[in-house]
Amino acid sequence: PRKKRAKIVSACGECRRKKTKCNGEHPCRSCTKSGAACTYPSATQGQDDKRNIPSKAALEAIELRLKTIEDMLYAILQSQQT
């Protein structure tokens, strides 16, 4: 049977950016080969990324764009019915 790879909890920043396999060492194999700085995100950094809440102005802009698109779609549907 094949030997299973050990699953690491978190990939380093460079492997995440390049979307490559990280072996979890410090520095990891990929960063050692490429000579890149191998840094791992702290536990709080990962949580902050997940809680990236858009600003009120951004939400209002999206709602305005959605309303504009809905109005255009409604106008197209109305013109096709006549």
TrEMBL record:
It is found in: Nucleus. It holds the Pfam family Zn_clus. The keyword Nucleotidyltransferase does not apply. GO terms for molecular function: DNA binding; DNA-binding transcription factor activity, RNA polymerase II-specific; zinc ion binding. One of its GO terms (cellular component) is nucleus. Residues 11-40 form the Zn(2)-C6 fungal-type domain. Keywords: DNA-binding, Metal-binding, Nucleus. Its main location: nucleus. SUPFAM superfamilies: Zn2/Cys6 DNA-binding domain (SSF57701). InterPro entries: AtrR-like, Zn2-C6_fun-type_DNA-bd_sf, Zn2Cys6_DnaBD. This is Zn(2)-C6 fungal-type domain-containing protein. It comes from Syncephalastrum racemosum.
